[in-house]
Amino acid sequence: MAVLKFIIRWFLLLILYWFLIFFIGRISFYACLIPLLEGVPLAKILQSLYTGLRLDLSTIGYLISLSVVLFSLYLLHQKKLLLSTIDSINYVFIIIYVLTFVGEACVYREWKAKLSMQALQHFMHPSEVFKTTSTGLTFLFFGLSAILIAIFLKIYQLRFSASKIQFYPTKSLIKKAITSFLFLIVGLFFSVICIRGGFQAIPIQSSDAFFCTTPIVNDAAVNPFWNIAYNIIDYENRFKNNPYSDFELVEAQKIVKQIYDVPNDSSIQLLNTQRPNIVFIILESWNAHVIKSFGGDNFSPFIDSLSKQGISFTKFYPAGYVSDQGIPA
């Protein structure tokens, strides 16, 4: 039972260790985005440091589940190789997590959005990514990642390494099997409860970390590892292939006709002609700051002249901060 106590103590320390990494990750996220924090109250920044704790614990549930299985095998066989494997797995998780939250901070500076499957797809052509990324941002990603990975791995090796657990051989195979089985059941039960975010009917969602109407602090509260893992799984399950069903032409025309069939048209007539020639001009990286009549600079006098001749929508909001989010909407 002595080795079981060591293992339980190790798991509790590992959970605290991951909470520490998540905390430093949020601090680093804000440090990289100081220019975007203008006007954000300090109280909201501090609140985001703990409103995401449930998502953090859910993430920890995923991260420790494999270690629970390997430790149950260790209680049965007591092979040092199993402890070394646990350490290796945690090394990989630490490296992946650091790359995730540092990469997310870099992406957020440009897109004002969290790291997603859509962003990862750009890395299918890494040369193009680094050609369009500033030198400062490239150094920030590789420099900060290297420093934090080195620090976190060193702390893990010194204080949290599973290989340091004392080895107490037990001769009774029955006792080892019972201990191993009980530890596996209890450990996996704890992991599943953490993953679900508790005993509530609906499993935890990223929106559970939201607490205000300020996007940047809500995004900081959402654990980046949990978010990107969910995003990848969601993409593989629903969006890897076309999620929209095709209709036969006759059926499609029938549905469209029903939609546009208005018995009593109560629309407000804004134009002077019944059959206007409407042209959509979709411009990349275009905003109201370059149009004088919208309160911006006079960088586009021709577009400005069109707005004066026609109808201007001054309360029109995009679906996101960058073109690939706004244009489709």
Put the structure in a nutshell:
By secondary structure, this protein is mainly alpha-helical. It has helices at 2-32, 42-51, 53-77, 80-111, 117-121, 126-132, 135-160, 173-196, 215-221, 224-239, 249-260, 301-309, 323-326.
Task: Using brief descriptors, characterize the structure shown.
329 residues, mainly alpha
Describe the structure.
By secondary structure, the protein is mainly α. Helix content is 63%, strand content 0%. The protein is built from 13 helices and no strands. It is elongated. The termini are far apart. The model has no long low-confidence stretch (mean pLDDT 86).
Order of helices and strands: HHHHHHHHHHHHH
Gap from first CA to last CA? 60 Å
Main sheet, how many strands, which sense, barrel? none
- Mean pLDDT figure: 86
Proportion of helical residues: 55-70%
The structure class reads mainly alpha
Helix count, per DSSP?
Answer: 13
DSSP strand tally: 0
- Beta percentage is under 5%
Poorly predicted regions are: none
Q: Radius of gyration, rounded?
A: 27 Å
Shape: elongated
List the helices and strands and how they pair.
Blueprint: H1 2-32, H2 42-51, H3 53-77, H4 80-111, H5 117-121, H6 126-132, H7 135-160, H8 173-196, H9 215-221, H10 224-239, H11 249-260, H12 301-309, H13 323-326
